[in-house]
Design brief:
Elements: E1 3-12, H1 15-34, E2 36-41, E3 44-54, E4 58-60, E5 63-72, E6 81-92, E7 95-105, H2 109-150
Antiparallel strand pairs: 1-7, 2-3, 3-5, 4-5, 5-6, 6-7
Helix pairs in contact: 1-2
Length: 154
């Protein structure tokens, strides 16, 4: 049984500028944070290397979509598999919406579903939120850097 994910982050910047950057820097902005997913748990952090498929980038009017799929690189049968997309949308007033939507399937059938209900969903959401925040921070930093070099507002 798959679980739906819908997480949102917003950044400052112009959509056309973000679109240009993503066309040129999709891998460092989106693929790189997927190489190792990380989330805080208690007083420490847990990381997991993943095998990810990203893209291709799909353009629309005021919107871009990046298909995403990933699974654990080691022992994939013991970890959830994620299928989704990152939606980058112009929301006006110099703001950009980054939305991660999709679903993940817990491993191990009924046992995995029970574990997911107890703690797995929180762990998955923390991990996915950390990925989305990393993408938002990287894209926003690229917007600022490119704007500074060009002498314009991001």
């Amino acid at each position: 049984m798959a679980n739906a994910i819908d997480l949102v982050e917003q950044i400052e910047g112009t959509f056309w500028h973000a679109a240009a950057i993503l066309k040129l820097e999709l891998d460092p902005i989106i693929q790189a944070p997927l190489e190792e997913l990380r989330f805080e748990l208690g007083g420490g952090a847990v990381t997991r290397r993943v095998e990810a498929r990203v893209g291709p980038l799909i353009n629309g009017h005021g919107r871009m979509t990046v298909p995403l799929h990933w699974k654990a690189a080691e022992r994939p049968n013991l970890f959830p598999v994620m299928d989704g997309e990152l939606r980058i949308t112009d929301i006006g007033d110099g703001r950009i919406d980054l939305r991660l939507v999709g679903e993940y399937a817990p491993p191990l059938g009924a046992l995995g579903a029970a574990a997911d209900a107890v703690v797995g969903r929180r762990v998955a959401e923390k991990s996915l939120r950390a990925f989305l925040v990393a993408v938002a921070q990287q894209l926003e930093a690229s917007l600022v850097e490119h704007a500074a070099r060009a002498g314009v507002e991001p």
